[in-house]
Amino acid sequence: MALRDIFKFRDLPESETSKPFLEHLEDLRWMIVKMAITLGIAMVVCFAFRATLVRILQAPLRDIGSQIGTLKALGITDSIVISFHLAFYAGIVISFPLLLYFIAEFVLPALTAVERRFLFPAIAVSFGLFLLGVLVCYFWLLPKTILFFFRDTESLGWAPTWTVQQYYSFVTRFTIAFGLAFELPVVVLALVRFGLVTYKFMARTRVYAIVLIFVLATIITPTPDILTLIALAIPMCLLYESCIWIAWSMERRAQKQIAS
Where are the alpha helices (DSSP H) in the chain? Predict the structure, then answer.
């Protein structure tokens, strides 16, 4: 039933012939194939530059200096396994615009000519927000978070000894999660654009949305600590609040166009 509901967005206007269910499934299969191939190629490219990725992702340790020593590799296959993980997450970042395009191409084939003109700018804005989230996390939040945990560990009289697997798992998941969190305005405004939610509904359910944001942040944060949860949830709440006012502006503009 969920697939049938999604496929309703793909149907052409009632005056034209809509695709049968099996053809929708075939389009879904090809979308997955194209996304997998794109991500696979991006991963191969990123894997070829794994040494550069390692240097980039270890840069936030510079605030700690030599106190942390070196990251420990405890597994025999850590170098290859972690390289694949890094290539996967870096591949997501560099192929994100194409992945978005394939999703939009599948979900919204019945767009009008006017709406199609906004597709590429929308993808560009979406990628820009994703990249902004990644960069804000990498240059601002991540170094502060790592330094906090380092000092907190020392305050308990323990010697911080981090493994490469733990460090890269935390850094990659935290950074990607922050980038995806910045996609919230795009998702909300798309729902507003297609009439699925309104400014009044968003304002009325603000409290419930904040609760859901904290639940989502709990799920996608790489560690269960409250600091990381708050660091991710608060920007998402601010983004949601901005979406409410943007939705108000969009609805007001639409009403003026109808009145004129």
Answer: 2-7, 21-48, 50-58, 78-107, 113-117, 119-136, 142-155, 164-181, 184-193, 199-204, 206-220, 226-259
- Token couple for 50: 């794994």
Contact call for residues 98 and 127 (beta carbons, < 8 A) = no
Our CA dihedral for 40, 41, 46, 48, rounded to 10 degrees, sits at 110
Distance CA 67, CA 85 (A): 26
Rg value, the chain, Cα: 22
What is the tens place of the pLDDT at every residue in 68-77? Answer: 657 888 888 9
Residues ≥6 apart with Cβ < 8 Å to 189: 243, 246, 247, 250
Q: Residues of the chain with pLDDT > 90: what percent?
A: 19
Q: Which of 143, 230, 144, 127 is closest to 179 using CA atoms?
A: 127
Rounded CA separation 89/239 (Å): 24
Classify the C-alpha dihedral 53-55-58-59 as positive or negative.
negative
pTM (predicted TM-score): 0.75
Instruction: Give pLDDT tens digits for 113-172.
Output: 666 677 778 888 889 989 998 998 888 888 888 888 888 888 898 888 888 988 998 899
